Q: What sequence folds into this?
């Protein structure tokens, strides 16, 4: 079944408020953002520079003000990709969501650069000792179909990731991909990835295909982190398999070394988008801004900061003007910022398979 067969007005997408909205009403959507990222174990041990260093309501009010400003600036929906492993707190996010008109889509999944925690690893390695106990994929399915923790918030997507240690070289990451693929097929929730650009995207697609995943229900993110020498052909090979791709970083050129020493410049990524749209792939491209985010406790204070661009406004204020200056039309921009993310999110309505 093609994603185009899903009626956007009938596909109901759960949000952090605890409600659900038709995919057709998501509006201008950022495909890959973080709102609150924190280092969980620091909170109960060394809280001086964490979220807990200031009163809860004061912190929430600051985040709400940032989201409201972005909403007034024309951003209607954010896919919020803070998952377990980097500080997901859905009870807190629901408090935020109820004070803003912004739609916030929550993700399930687990974030690790290298190893799964013992909680999941032992269950994977010794399943005979944990008969009747939940596995990682069971928790993810529960997030999507039932709700998260003590809230009525359901996850709208599943995030899976690999990073600098490599997917093939890291057994726990391969296990993570398997668990998220199983959860995706059991729940229908679309997949969204974290990786280091197109070379990783091709590896992700290969693993997903081995697990029976419908690649048209996958958004491969962080294409902007592709090595500078990545050919356009690598992006096309991904797109020819039907997946969405997301350009969502837009770090100033001098900051690219923070993430990868050989990552692309913004100028390269603008040209890649224009070239790919020109080759007929406009229906598979997503956009987001990436940085700065409303709250984090782990990066330098200046990380991703541009005094001229407010949080979550980079696409509106920088990316779109650049793409239009290079010849893209309003209709092509609308496709990438409205229609495409709605189509990706709407695959949730296709259900399990």
A:
């Amino acid at each position: 079944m093609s994603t185009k067969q899903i009626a956007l007005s009938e596909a109901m997408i759960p949000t952090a408020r605890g409600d659900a909205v038709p995919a057709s009403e998501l509006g201008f959507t950022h495909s890959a953002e973080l709102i609150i990222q924190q280092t969980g174990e620091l909170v109960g041990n060394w809280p001086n520079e964490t979220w807990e260093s200031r009163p809860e309501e004061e912190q929430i009010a600051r985040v709400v003000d940032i989201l409201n400003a972005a909403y007034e600036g024309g951003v209607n929906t954010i896919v919020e990709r803070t998952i377990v492993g980097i500080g997901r707190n859905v009870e807190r996010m629901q408090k935020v969501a109820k004070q803003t008109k912004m739609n916030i889509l929550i993700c399930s999944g687990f974030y690790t650069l290298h190893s799964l925690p013992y909680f999941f690893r032992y269950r994977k390695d010794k399943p005979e000792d944990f008969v009747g106990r939940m596995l990682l994929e069971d928790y993810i399915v529960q997030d999507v179909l039932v709700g998260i923790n003590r809230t009525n918030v359901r996850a709208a997507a599943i995030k899976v990731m690999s990073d600098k240690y490599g997917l093939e070289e890291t057994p726990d990451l391969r296990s993570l991909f398997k668990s998220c693929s199983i959860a995706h097929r059991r729940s229908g929730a679309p997949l969204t990835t974290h990786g280091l650009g197109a070379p990783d995207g091709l590896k992700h697609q290969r693993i997903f295909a081995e697990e029976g995943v419908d690649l048209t229900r996958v958004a491969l993110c962080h294409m902007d982190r592709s090595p500078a020498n990545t050919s356009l052909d690598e992006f096309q090979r991904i797109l020819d398999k039907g997946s969405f791709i997301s350009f969502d970083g837009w770090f100033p050129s001098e900051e690219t070394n923070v993430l990868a020493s050989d990552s692309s410049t913004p100028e390269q990524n603008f040209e890649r988008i224009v070239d790919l749209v020109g080759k007929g792939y406009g229906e598979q491209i997503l956009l987001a801004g990436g940085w700065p985010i409303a709250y984090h406790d782990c990066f330098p204070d200046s990380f991703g900061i541009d005094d001229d661009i407010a949080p979550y406004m980079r696409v509106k204020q920088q990316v779109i003007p650049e793409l239009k200056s290079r010849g893209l039309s309003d209709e092509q921009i609308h496709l990438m910022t409205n229609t495409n993310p709605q189509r990706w999110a709407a695959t949730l309505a296709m259900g399990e398979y």
User: Anything to note?
Assistant: The longest strand covers residues 103-109. DSSP finds eleven helices and twelve strands in the chain. The mean pLDDT is 93.
